[in-house]
């Protein structure tokens, strides 16, 4: 069974985790990708954003959310009045999965399999423990399923305040699921503005929740999503 667990050091230092991740061979994706793309941002961020996987530009740059979807995310964060420098951004899968076009020159995004997402989950859990965010925003289905199970549907629960036990060793963060920025880019032109506004609204809900957590010790009633099985590595 593929797993990144043997490559994840027992540390809460993000710099050490990032160095170790460069040598991860927990699933076959490392063979074709240019490099591991680890998370980046504020080490003590109150809000962590988790996407699906690095894209073509992220794979080349070694940084998350620097391509078209990242630029749209920046626009959405600005509209929501959220400073990206205050966040920690990462992906459920750390290597770019792709196929090539007929000429073999263009690398085309390919959705990670459930096995690949499961294999990479120890890195996400390590990042959660290291950053210890109050709120985690799950951008898209792959990110949401990586922490909430394969039966979770973003369309049913987006923008809700969610809870799941066992994701962090010290406490449980609040979770908010929404669409991935790439879904806005892929959408029909006549619905793109509406999709963008929905993403902005969900980001505002997530960021506002940090104040609720800090002041009340709770994020409200919300929806409890039990983990289907233990998620600690």
TrEMBL record:
Example of a GO biological process term: DNA repair
GO molecular function: 4 iron, 4 sulfur cluster binding; deaminated base DNA N-glycosylase activity; metal ion binding
Record carries keyword DNA-binding: no
Gene3D superfamilies: Uracil-DNA glycosylase-like domain
Swiss-Prot/TrEMBL keywords: 4Fe-4S, DNA damage, DNA repair, Hydrolase, Iron, Iron-sulfur, Metal-binding
Domain of life: Bacteria
Record-annotated Uracil-DNA glycosylase-like domain positions: 38-204
Tagged with keyword Iron: yes
Family matches, as InterPro entries: UDG_Type-4/5 (IPR051536), Ura-DNA_glyco_family4 (IPR005273), Uracil-DNA_glycosylase-like (IPR005122), Uracil-DNA_glycosylase-like_sf (IPR036895)
SUPFAM superfamilies: Uracil-DNA glycosylase-like
Family: Belongs to the uracil-DNA glycosylase (UDG) superfamily. Type 4 (UDGa) family.
PANTHER family: TYPE-4 URACIL-DNA GLYCOSYLASE, TYPE-5 URACIL-DNA GLYCOSYLASE
Protein name in UniProt: Type-4 uracil-DNA glycosylase
